[in-house]
Amino acid sequence: QVQLAESGGGLVQAGESLRLSCADSGRTFSGYAMGWFRQAPGKEREFVAAISWSGGRIYYADSVKGRFTISRDNTKKTGYLQMNRLKPEDTAVYYCAAEYRGDPSRWYLDYDAWGQGTQVTVSS
Fold first, then answer.
1. Plot region of 75 (φ>0 → left; ψ -120 to 50 → alpha; else → beta)
2. pLDDT higher than threshold 80 for residue 79
3. What is the spatial distance between Cα 84 and Cα 82, in angstroms, rounded to a whole number?
4. What is the mean pLDDT of the segment spanning 63-87?
5. Pairing label, strands 92-99, 113-114
6. CA-CA-CA-CA torsion sign (44, 33, 16, 85)
7. Which is it for strands 46-51 and 58-60: parallel, antiparallel or unpaired?
8. What's the pLDDT band for 85 if we cut at 50, 70, 90?
9. Which pLDDT tens digit goes with each residue over 10-46?
10. CB-CB contact of 86 with 23 (8 Å)
11. Residue 114 contacts by C-beta under 8 Å, 6 or more apart in sequence?
12. Does the CA dihedral 35-38-42-43 come out positive or negative?
């Protein structure tokens, strides 16, 4: 099983950067896709980015394309979300998730395991 934990959130000003990490502390389990989602107060969970196991397939939400970069290091069992040029509308709790079939889906219901989330707050 995959056990995920996010880190790296915080409070930043608009235009600054943050890098989120998603560490898998579960038993060795390979082949899963990793996705990042976010949820702001009063809003639905929103797709941010997803990456296949090999990194050969990567998808972004239009709202973050060109500003965010998803990556992973399978030797470290860790995924990353580099967030540049942050905007106040990026404020949310960010979650990483694992999709066991290996499909980097945009749909959160396709994901099988979730981290606890990390808060990102961007002030204007």
1. alpha
2. yes
3. 7
4. 97
5. antiparallel
6. negative
7. antiparallel
8. very high
9. 999 999 999 999 999 988 778 999 999 999 999 999 9
10. no
11. 4, 95, 96, 97, 98
12. negative
